Amino acid sequence: MNENDAPETLPPSIEQDAPLDEAAPAEPLTKSVANRLRDMIAQDVLPAGERVRERALAETLQVSRTPLREALKVLATEGLVELFPHRGAVVANPAPAEVQDLLQLLGVLEAFGGELACARASEQDLAEVQALHYEMLAAYARKDRLAYFKANQQIHKAIVSISGNASLIETHARINAQLYRVRYRSNAHNTKWDVAIQEHEDILNALRNRDGKALAAILRSHLGSTWANVSEGLKRTGKAASKKAAPIAGDS
Questions:
Q1: Which CATH number is 31's domain given?
Q2: 102 and 164 share one domain
Q3: 88 φ/ψ angles, rounded to the nearest 5 degrees
Q4: Is the residue at 247 inside a domain?
Q5: Do residues 42 and 2 make contact, with C-beta atoms less than 8 angstroms apart?
Q6: 252 falls in which pLDDT band (50, 70, 90)?
Q7: CA nearest 35: which of 59, 13, 18?
Q8: How many domains does the chain have?
Q9: Contact 162, 203 (CB under 8 A)
Q10: Per-residue pLDDT tens digits for 79-95
């Protein structure tokens, strides 16, 4: 069976999600569809390197192909999918070296954002980051990986936003969007969840103390941990693939 003959079905877990409201205005609907697709990619419901089956996906989300295609265009600008003529959308599958480069760049961006945030944060800014931190802890207590990840992402974005540097904010948002699946997978495979929580406690304390150098160092190390988790996951995947591909004794 080739790719085009494969059944147009999706995993039951995602099919149980609430349908999207197609009667809603076009722009919010496109955004809602894009948000759902982004999470489906992060959770490997739409696996990296595979073609997006539009008909099955539209039926699952209970929307027409138009908002689905508009949402795929949004994800294409973020680097999460690639669009090909006569083939449609394929979930992006960046090479490990590219992922490492992007994470290194993101670490530099977040470190710079952290330094600026320490110098410019208002008391209201600090309170908002603290509130996001509590949301993340609540998700951690529930063992809700996706909610934890989203709160985690909001904290990083909030710190960069506090910097007030528009070019930094735009560049960070673009690179971070490309790494959405990677960063989620890092969280999902992280066996030292309590260590990540402690790192975030340290991030919050450095921001409260307006210690820019300390916050920059923590953020760069934090992104380094992400790459360590990702590379370890790639090694496990590679070993599994090697075992699957290994010839059976006696085969020629």
A1: 1.10.10.10
A2: yes
A3: 90, -150
A4: no
A5: no
A6: very low
A7: 18
A8: 2
A9: no
A10: 999 999 888 999 999 99
Residue type, 73: K
Q: Is residue 251 part of a domain?
A: no
First to last CA, the chain: 25
Tokens describing residue 139: 């998700």
109 and 194, same domain (yes or no): yes
Segments in the chain forming alpha helices (H): 12-15, 26-42, 54-61, 65-78, 96-120, 123-142, 145-162, 166-178, 180-188, 193-208, 212-245
Q: Of 66, 91, 116, which marks where a domain is finished?
A: 91
Q: What is the pLDDT of residues 121-165, one digit of tens each?
A: 999 999 999 999 999 999 999 999 899 999 999 999 999 999 999
Residue 90: strand pairing partners? 51, 82
Query: Residue 201 is encoded by which pair of tokens?
Result: 């406690």
Q: Which CATH number is 104's domain given?
A: 1.20.120.530
